[in-house]
Amino acid sequence: MTSRDRRTPARHHGRPPWLPPGGDAEVWVGDLDSLPEPSIIVRLLLTRHPGDGPARFFCVPGAKGLDLPTRFLEPGPVRSDPAIGVGRLVAHVLGVREVGTHCVGFVRNVVRQPDTGYPHPVPWAHVPVIAVDGGPEPVVSGEWVDVESARDTLGGRHWWPIVEHRLSPTAMPDDRP
């Protein structure tokens, strides 16, 4: 990880519901040199920074409401390479394969003792959030939202601190697209 990385505590109340007892979720924000391993899910962060309005990010409809575009990586003892998952997610959301991307943070599941319902690697399993360079337009249905108007509905998502940091007006210039 680079020197710009900052660790931010996960925003949850008690044990995150997706983890077995004793599990925790850490949120790391800041540009990373590579994708964390092992990764189980990849998420895409598309942003807009209009000169006359707030920064916005793209969400797609999901089972729990709006969500970042997401791809679950194939489960099993040999998981797919997260870079391949990012490429497939980019192709699906943007309709192109060749765009610059970089990791801007991740959620790390920390599980020392898995139960039978937890299928992911231990002790760590990562969910990186990937920013796309430039301003490509999505080819899938969704909507652009800004941090302030989305805070009440999306602020409890485990990826929220990463998006909020990335779009914060006080973020360092090299921390934003």
Provide keyphrases for this structure.
177 residues, alpha+beta, six-stranded mixed β-sheet, 10 strands, globular
Secondary structure elements and their pairing?
Blueprint: E1 6-9, E2 24-29, E3 41-45, E4 47-48, E5 56-62, E6 65-67, E7 70-72, H1 82-94, E8 101-110, E9 124-132, E10 143-146, H2 147-154, H3 160-167
Parallel strand pairs: 3-9
Antiparallel strand pairs: 1-2, 2-8, 3-7, 4-5, 5-6, 5-10, 8-9
Question: What would you note in describing this structure?
Answer:
This protein is an alpha+beta fold and 177 residues long. Helices cover 16% and strands 30% of the residues. It contains 3 helices and 10 strands, in the order E-E-E-E-E-E-E-H-E-E-E-H-H. It has helices at residues 82-94, 147-154, 160-167; strands at residues 6-9, 24-29, 41-45, 47-48, 56-62, 65-67, 70-72, 101-110, 124-132, 143-146. The strands form 2 sheets. A 6-stranded mixed sheet has the order 1-2-8-9-3-7, sandwiched between helices. Strand 4 and strand 5 form a beta hairpin. The longest helix has 13 residues, at 82-94. The protein is globular. 33% of the residues are buried.
Gist?
This protein has 177 residues and is α+β, with helices and mostly antiparallel strands. Helix content is 16%, strand content 30%.
